[in-house]
Amino acid sequence: MSPVTGTTSANPDLDWSQLKETVLMLNLAIAQIEHSMHEGNASIDTLVNSFTALSNNLNDIQASVTKIDSNGKSDNETIKMIIQGSSATATEKVQSAIIAFQFYDKLSQRLEHVSHSLSSLTDLMADPNALYSPPKWQALQTTIREKYTMEEERRMFDKVLAGATIEEALEEFKNELESKADDSDDIEFF
């Protein structure tokens, strides 16, 4: 079997095939799932680390509060500094956890999108009139592309449909996101 090239549903020729279009759409779904799982794992790691640190900070605060009652006034300044430092760290960890939850929400949204896309693909393939219709395949691809909320996702979609490998599309997508993250410290809310 020859390597899969880009979509020709917009301009079908004698080489057009629903099988090739299906492979392209499945490759896109695979790329989305792989990227989403990578992001999801990073978010879960952040949550675990944040809550572990938060638990340690709260234990430090509790231990310091207990010492305030049992120690003389000279130790209270040191204890106060420990409580302030632990409270500041706990606040940072809560913020990290909130951001990780936001990324997990984004993961859920992406996987829901992939699910809807695969469902639409299945519907198209189950309809004999649509299965062999390049315009129906193009309409499916357009509908799926329009659901993407990030420009980087639309570019990844375009790359896969143009015939890029999953690895190439994911690498470019990852580089664009890292570049975007370097340019801005803003948190994206959904």
Structural summary, described in words:
By secondary structure, this protein is mainly alpha-helical. The chain has one domain. The chain has six helices and no strands. Helix 1 (18-70) runs antiparallel to helix 5. The two termini are 42 Å apart. The mean pLDDT is 78.
Q: What attributes characterize this protein structure?
A:
81% helix; 0% strand; 190 residues; mainly alpha
Task: Report the sheet with the most strands, covering strand number, pairing sense and barrel closure.
Answer: none
> Given the structure, what is the number of helices?
6
How much of the sequence lies in strands comes to under 5%
Q: First CA to last CA: what distance? A: 42 Å
User: Based on helices, strands and strand pairing, what is the structural class?
Assistant: mainly alpha
Mean pLDDT: 78
Short description:
The protein contains 6 helices and no strands.
List the helices and strands and how they pair.
Layout: H1 18-70, H2 73-126, H3 128-131, H4 134-147, H5 151-161, H6 166-183
Helix pairs in contact: 1-2, 1-5, 1-6, 2-4, 5-6
